[in-house]
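User: Please write out a complete single-protein record containing the residue sequence and its fold in token form, without commentary.

AI:
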Amino acid sequence: MRRDRLDNTQMKAKARKSKRYSLRPIAELHRAVQDGPERRSRVQKDLYASYLKRVLSVVLDGMIWVSCTILILVGTVLGLNSWISQGTPQYEEFVYTLVLPLFPIISLWLYLTIMESSKVQATIGKLATRIIVTDLNYNRIGFGRANARFWSKVISIPILPSVLIVPLFTKKRQALHDLISGTLVINKRR
């Protein structure tokens, strides 16, 4: 019993020193394991982001991304039309067949990977719903893991109906792209 207290105390001290969020969930789960199955299930329920929060964050992010993308594309098309009308038509085909179709996917990729791998650990939609993305050890994910998370979302689009219900059946409420990339979406504390 004394050793368990030392472990908890050491974890708390490390969390305070590093001022990182990541050790708090581990300490809570450790205490919950000692207290029994009722507390463990309650802590797990409070720790992992609910399905509704995840869906709401996706809707908010979608609205933000679509609005920004439309504004940028409209401005780009209007600017290009005036530029092309001034005598540079050789770039018209390149811009309309390659740049404009790729811009939405590139902007979404950059938005999600940069925001989720940043110090904030969340997109604007996730910040609004107070959830963050972590690795399986509750640490911040890097740009590589955020990339894996994004591209696994893209890969899972063809099997969309099954992807939507996966978080309802996993213990840690992980979607298919979370299982592939080794990430968790948890509630943000404070």
User: Anything to note?
Assistant: The two ends are 30 Å apart (CA to CA). Residues 2-47 form one domain. The mean pLDDT is 80. Strands lie at 131-135, 183-187.
